[in-house]
Amino acid sequence: MVTRIDLHCHSTASDGTLTPAELVCAGAAAGLDVMAITDHDTTGGWAPAAAARPDGLRLVRGAELSCRWRGAGMEWPIALHLLAYLFDPGEPRLAADLARLRLDREQRAEKIVGKLRADGVPITWAEVHGYAAGGSVGRPHIAQALIRAGLVRTTNEAFASRWLGARYFVPKADLDVFEAVRAVRAAGGVPVFAHPRATVRGRVVPDQLIAGLADAGLFGLEADHEDHSPSEREHVRALAGDLGLVVTGSSDFHGTHKTVRLGEFTTDPEAFEKIVSAATGVPVLG
Ligand code: AMP
Ligand code: FE
Ligand code: FE
Ligand code: ZN
């Protein structure tokens, strides 16, 4: 029997469209054996996902941390995402980091709404805040307001450069990626670099930096992801081999904010078992 493992999924605790309870049920319905809930900068979905977890679905509690790296001579840092699995959510430093990132997400989204309103776009912060429903606020929630106002048809269109991609872009607070790797480890968690080679998303970091992160405690690289081309997947796989890192594959499911399906990309059981063995923060449920 094949074991289907999807280690990167979002709920309404951040910018997904299924509640944590709906997400775990959808995971079971999609035939997953293992699913990770990895909302942006929050563990807010952990408890409701755990409470609703169907029998037979193993749940990995995690998060996706907003990080940055600034190379020598770079004017702007490169934004990157670090998946963190099975860390202790009560570890004070990491918990404070996440709280700070969430607060900044609110302030930043409010600023973006202000810029849009200054140009006559009829949306409000109250509306956007309402779409976020108490979770980590992200640009997809602003996209939802732009769709409602009839200015764009899809979330993807809202990310074009004339909207949230550039013209109304405001940077968000993030963690230095080396500090984040160390903080996740200190909380007993296992850090995996999400979509490290996704050039469609913008600038990517050099392989040399990933080697440095491996020395600092990075555990794996997400290779199989819809934002990687086949050659980018191969490159990441080879780099992981060279550096002794595990390779993961995941959907990065966001409900209707994206078109990818649960389990569209999956992780090998051996890689999953290595992640579990390396974690000391919280156990896998189920
Ligand atoms: P933020 O975290 O607020 O900067 O918004 C980035 C989030 O928006 C990412 O986590 C993606 O889930 C989502 N996103 C980025 N680009 C797109 C796109 N072109 N279409 C749909 N969602 C996107
Ligand atoms: Fe997202
Ligand atoms: Fe990501
Ligand atoms: Zn994600």
Low-confidence stretches: none
What integer is the average pLDDT? 97
Strand content: 15-25%
Give the class from helix and strand content and strand pairing. Answer: alpha/beta
- What proportion of the residues is helical, as a percent range? 25-40%
> How many strands appear in the DSSP assignment?
8
Radius of gyration: 18 Å
List each distinct ligand once: adenosine monophosphate, fe (iii) ion, zinc ion
Shape: globular
Biggest beta sheet attributes: 8 strands, mixed
Walk me through the structure.
By secondary structure, the chain is an alpha/beta fold. Helix content is 38%, strand content 16%. The protein has helices at 20-29, 46-52, 92-118, 125-132, 139-148, 155-158, 177-186, 207-216, 230-243, 269-278; strands at 5-9, 34-40, 58-69, 78-85, 175-176, 190-193, 220-224, 246-249. Strands 1, 2, 3, 4, 5, 6, 7 and 8 form an eight-stranded mixed beta sheet that branches. The longest helix is centred in the middle third of the chain and has 27 residues, at 92-118. The protein binds adenosine monophosphate, fe (iii) ion (2 copies) and zinc ion (ZN). One fe (iii) ion (FE) is lined by residues 64, 81, 194-195. Residues 64, 81, 194-195 line the site of one fe (iii) ion.
Helices, strands, pairings?
Elements: E1 5-9, H1 20-29, E2 34-40, H2 46-52, E3 58-69, E4 78-85, H3 92-118, H4 125-132, H5 139-148, H6 155-158, E5 175-176, H7 177-186, E6 190-193, H8 207-216, E7 220-224, H9 230-243, E8 246-249, H10 269-278
Parallel strand pairs: 1-2, 2-3, 3-5, 6-7, 7-8
Antiparallel strand pairs: 3-4, 4-6
The structure holds adenosine monophosphate, fe (iii) ion (FE) (2 copies) and zinc ion.
